[in-house]
Amino acid sequence: MPTLEITTMIGCPLMCTFCPQPGLKRQYEKDNDPRVKDSKYMSLENFSRILSKTPKHVRIDFSGMAEPWANPDCTEMLRIALESGYTVAVFSTLYGMSEQDADLVVELLRKHREQIAAVCLHLPDANGNMPGWKHSKTWENVFDKFRNLMEENVLKSFDIMTMDGSGAVHEDLHHLNLRILPWHGHTRAGSLDESSVDKQNIYTQTPHNTSPVSCASTPFYDHNVVLPNGDVVLCCMDYDMKHVIGNLLRQDYYDLFTGAEMNRLRRINMTPGYSACSICKSCNQTLNYDLSSSATWTASGDPLSHRDATIALYRYHLDRINASPWWRFGMAITNLVRGRRAGH
Questions:
Q1: Which of 158, 266, 279, 287 ranks highest by number of CB atoms within 10 Å?
Q2: Given this model, what pLDDT does residue 293 score?
Q3: Mean pLDDT, the chain, integer
Q4: Are 4 and 178 within 8 A, CB to CB?
Q5: Closest by alpha carbon to 145, among 90, 92, 91, 107?
Q6: What angle do CA 8, 69, 160 make, to 5 degrees?
Q7: How far apart, in Å, are the Cα atoms of 165 and each of 158, 184, 200?
Q8: In the chain, at which residue ranges do the beta strands (DSSP E only) sit?
Q9: Would you say the C-alpha torsion 113, 114, 116, 119 has a positive or negative sign?
Q10: Sign of the Cα pseudo-torsion (14, 15, 19, 24, in order)
Q11: What angle do CA 236, 71, 64 make, to 5 degrees?
């Protein structure tokens, strides 16, 4: 479903190796208007403004590119989102969450259980992929509150994960006797410095997609991430902010999908051949389309039944996209005339 991930702050203190924080922080500081003060943390005012621009059918994820509760206002943000009627998901390491916060959050999750799409706790692992985490009695008390909620089995989805190929947790947590499934990492579509995880051998190599592609998660490119200054990046892979598709403090939600950057991305993705100008061309979570003379297209290796005529039509429109501006202008006039004749 359409989703907006909330990045509540820039420069996550946990510094997880599979989350390229240095690149995000560098690019955010470079692109951010120096006149905007205190843009490291998302303010409650800006969160409310962003939410007011977001349609109710869009899921709100407290995840983004940093630990949500590294922002002390996150519990209040969660309350506002739920009481406004949004479907919500929570992904957290529990870092920064006080016991009082945990009581409030658990109460909100229980009260609004029908609106909760998922809760996922990300724990520190045995390989040290969360170097900013430190064990404390407070953290463990907070975890116990969430574990009790999980055991109530009142939520649709409640998971626990690590960023480790074995699923093994940090040695300080062995006494919790947790059984967690292995996690398979990836390079964030080339955003990750692979040298930071080169000894673990649990990540997927960065592909170079030479075929036309679309997103395997959403064909409409509408699972996006909003940053504290209102900028919206394409997806959770885009730590380098390659595709800033708009700003929800200055624009409406649907403007994100009709702007120049989104149109440029779609055009590159539709075109055969690899391009570093699209993060999707370096992503392993894509649908890849074969435009050869065979009668089938392929999507992630699975055949889709399409006739030669359909492929020919795709090629025709692709050629037209790459045609001269005068052709596009002529087609726009033709379509306008046709619309008037039809009484539109």
A1: 279
A2: 65
A3: 86
A4: no
A5: 107
A6: 115
A7: 20, 6, 8
A8: 3-6, 59-62, 88-92, 116-122, 158-161, 185-186, 203-204, 213-215, 223-226, 231-233, 244-247, 286-288, 296-299, 302-305
A9: positive
A10: positive
A11: 5
pLDDT digits (tens, 9 = 90+) for 268-322: 999 999 999 999 999 989 998 877 665 454 444 444 444 344 445 555 555 554 5
Q: Could you tell me if 25 and 82 are in contact, meaning their C-beta atoms sit under 8 angstroms apart?
A: no
For the chain, helix, strand, coil in percent to 5 are: 35, 15, 45
| Cα distance between residue 21 and residue 191, in whole Å | 10
pLDDT digits (tens, 9 = 90+) for 38-71: 589 999 999 999 999 999 999 999 999 999 999 9
Beta bridge partners, 120, equal 91, 159
Place of tokens 């916060």: 101
Do 42 and 9 contact (CB within 8 A), yes or no? Answer: yes
CA distance 203 to 160: 19
Residue type, 62: F
Six token digits for residue 133: 């985490």
Decide the pairing of beta strands 231-233 and 286-288: unpaired
Structure confidence by residue, pLDDT tens digits, 164-186: 888 899 999 999 999 898 888 88
